[in-house]
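Input (structure):
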C-alpha cells in the first residue's frame, strides 16, 4: 500500500544502489557511470555521500525512457532535489514527483512507484505506432487542405500545415497533463485512505479505553454497594441484639450466636 524510503530506493535504483555496488561518484544509477570528480551537497555543505541520497538531498531520475535499441529503461541520472530536476525530465513536467512526496511524508503510495517501475516493453512500440497513426492523420489533413487549396486556386499552404502541426502538438501536451493529474489524484486518494485508516484505528483505541474505564468504575460501584449492604446487615443485627437485651433484661450479656 505504501512504501518507505528504503523500499522505494530498492525498487527504483536497482542493483547499483546496493551498498557493495554503490559509489558516491555514480552519476547514473542504471548504468553505474561515474563522474570524474567528487561532488558537494549544498544541503549538508559537505562532500556528497550515501546519507545525502538516503535523505533525498539527491535522487536518481525515475523517468522511463525509450533507449536507442527500443528497450524501455529508467533514465537514472542523478539530480539535485533543490533544482529544476533532471535535465531531460524536469519536476515542472511532473517527473519524479514521488520523490517530493517521499521527502515530505517519508512514505509514498506503492501505485505511484509501480507506475515508474513496471517495465513497459511495449511502450516503444506503442509510441511508434501512435506516431505512425498521427503522421497518417496529418498526411490526410494535408492532402485534404492541398485539395482545397488546389480547388481555390491559391493560398497559404505552409502556414496551414504549421497550424495543423501545432494542433497535434497541443493535443499531446493536454493528454500528458491529464495523465499527470490522474496520477496525482490517485496518489492523493491513497494517502487520504491511509490517513483515514490511521484515524479510525486511533478512534478504536480511544473507544476501547473508554469501555475499560466504564467497566472498572462499574465494578467499583458494585463493590461499594455490597459493602454498604453488609454494613446495613451488621447494623440491623446489632439493633436486633439490642432489642433482645431490652426485651429480656435478665439476660443482659446474652448475644445471639
Ligand atoms: Zn546532503
Ligand atoms: Zn531523467
Ligand atoms: Zn544542487
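Output (sequence):
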Amino acid at each position: 500500500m505504501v512504501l518507505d524510503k528504503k523500499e522505494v530506493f530498492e525498487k527504483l535504483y536497482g542493483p547499483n544502489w546496493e551498498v557493495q555496488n554503490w559509489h558516491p561518484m555514480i552519476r547514473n544509477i542504471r548504468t553505474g557511470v561515474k563522474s570524474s570528480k567528487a561532488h558537494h551537497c549544498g544541503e549538508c555543505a559537505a562532500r556528497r555521500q550515501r546519507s545525502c541520497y538516503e535523505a533525498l538531498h539527491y535522487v536518481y531520475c525515475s523517468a522511463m525512457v525509450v533507449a536507442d535499441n527500443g528497450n524501455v529503461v529508467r533514465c537514472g541520472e542523478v539530480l539535485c532535489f533543490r533544482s529544476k530536476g533532471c535535465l531531460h525530465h524536469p519536476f515542472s513536467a511532473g517527473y519524479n514527483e514521488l520523490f517530493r512526496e517521499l521527502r515530505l511524508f517519508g512514505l509514498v503510495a506503492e501505485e505511484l512507484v509501480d507506475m515508474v517501475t513496471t517495465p513497459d516493453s511495449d511502450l516503444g512500440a506503442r509510441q511508434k505506432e501512435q506516431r505512425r497513426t498521427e503522421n497518417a492523420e496529418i498526411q490526410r489533413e494535408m492532402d485534404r487542405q492541398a485539395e482545397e487549396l488546389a480547388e481555390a486556386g491559391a493560398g497559404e499552404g505552409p502556414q496551414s500545415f504549421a497550424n495543423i502541426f501545432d494542433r497535434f502538438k497541443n493535443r499531446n501536451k493536454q493528454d500528458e497533463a491529464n495523465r499527470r493529474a490522474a496520477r496525482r489524484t490517485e496518489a492523493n486518494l491513497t494517502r487520504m485512505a491511509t490517513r483515514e485508516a490511521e484515524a479510525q484505528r486511533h478512534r478504536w483505541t480511544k473507544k476501547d479505553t473508554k469501555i475499560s474505564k466504564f467497566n472498572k468504575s462499574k465494578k467499583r460501584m458494585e463493590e461499594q454497594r455490597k459493602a454498604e449492604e453488609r454494613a446495613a446487615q451488621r447494623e440491623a443485627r446489632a439493633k436486633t441484639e439490642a432489642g433482645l437485651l431490652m426485651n429480656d433484661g435478665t439476660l443482659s450479656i446474652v448475644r445471639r450466636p
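Notes: The pocket of zinc ion (ligand 3) is lined by residues 42, 80, 82-83 (CB under 6 Å). The first strand starts at residue 2 and ends at 4.
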